[in-house]
Write a structure and sequence with these properties.
- The chain folds into two domains: 106 residues, Immunoglobulin-like (Sandwich), CATH 2.60.40; 260 residues, Aminopeptidase (3-Layer(aba) Sandwich).
- The strands form three sheets. A seven-stranded mixed sheet has the order 11-12-14-13-15-17-16, with helices on both faces.
- The longest helix is centred in the last third of the chain and has 18 residues.
- α2 packs across α8, α3 crosses α8 and α6 packs across α8.
- Helix content is 25%, strand content 23%.
- By secondary structure, the chain is an alpha+beta fold.
- Bound molecules: (2-guanidinoethylmercapto)succinic acid and zinc ion (ZN).
- The site of (2-guanidinoethylmercapto)succinic acid has 11 residues, from β15 and β17.
- (2-guanidinoethylmercapto)succinic acid (GEM) binds next to β15 and β17.
Amino acid sequence: MQISSQFDSGNIKVIKATDPSNIELAINKDHQSDFYQWFHFKLHNNQRCEHVLHITNAGQSAYVEGWQDYQAVASYDRDHWFRVPTEFDGQNLTITLTPEYDSVYFAYFAPYSYERHQDLLHNAQLDIDCQLQVLGQTIDGRDVSVLKVGEEAQDKKVIWLTARQHPGESMAEWFMEGFIDRLLDEDDGVARALLNKAVFYLVPNMNPDGCVRGHLRTNALGVNLNREWLEPSLDKSPEVYLVREKMLATGVDMHLDIHGDEALPVNFVAGCEGIPSYDQRLKTLEDNFKSILLAITPEFQDDKGYDKDPAGQANLTVASNWVGEQFKCLAFTVEMPFKDNELLPDPSVGWSDNRSSLFGRDMLTAIYRIVGDLR
Ligand code: GEM
Ligand code: ZN
């Protein structure tokens, strides 16, 4: 029996792997950080017996409440990911599976690889309406890439989407894949009408280094990019620095920052109610956008979410708060679950790569319905 993780976004440490009924593993921390929760590894064994895998340090992970009612994902072909029986006893996360094939992958959520990221960018650039721009490089030397879709014009709004500041939240890039595919679909009326009203700047992956390294929450230097937006630096957080400079150059009329949430089994958004410039205009925009999204898809809800920030007390190091304050615009953090949408549960896959992608496609319609009111 072999267990390995030396591949894109791989993360596991093998403690003991001799007896299939008692495999002991641990998740590695992000480099230069105490955060950990993302795992992704391969088990190879030709014995068709029940395998019991214990992740022995789950009790000290970043978001322990994320393991309650959580089911790990597995795949034999690295394309279809399904949920497998998983229990948490407060310390150990225990996954149980009798494999159908010799090789099986396990992960915290369906991985989105760096190769697929490159394919997403380069397939998009083939579209006449899309320009692939490289803003600079990350700490490990990867491109900070943005897709510009459409052309600026006096009467057009400027809409930014950023995603996967937190690398373990791979659902964020599945969301972006669905969003981009639909936005570039020349047969899609919403997409075509929207491009007459807005130009888009899309960053499908804010943190490619952290993704490849198998991190949960930080970049190659262990920096949480979603706490860098007030004072980013080229030597600590070039990913944020470069995107933020581009935003200052283009202006922003609307921003969505796409994330995943470990604990809440729902899709939700977090607004800018705590920024100093919050006013009735922004509140009305936020309320209208949420009402629109509720009407578009039952995959969204607005009953559960983060605690609201008290007036004037928003953390302006957080992307959507800084953007909302800087540009006095509609800005949301969008959260999808690592678990499932409890309002529409699917026990076989839970919340998934495909449902994330479809949610991204639905977001286009919501933006189309609000774009005329942004300013
Ligand atoms: C969260 S967003 C921080 C809280 N935001 C608001 N507006 N309350 C983070 O960065 O901790 C996003 C995430 O981690 O998924
Ligand atoms: Zn996040």
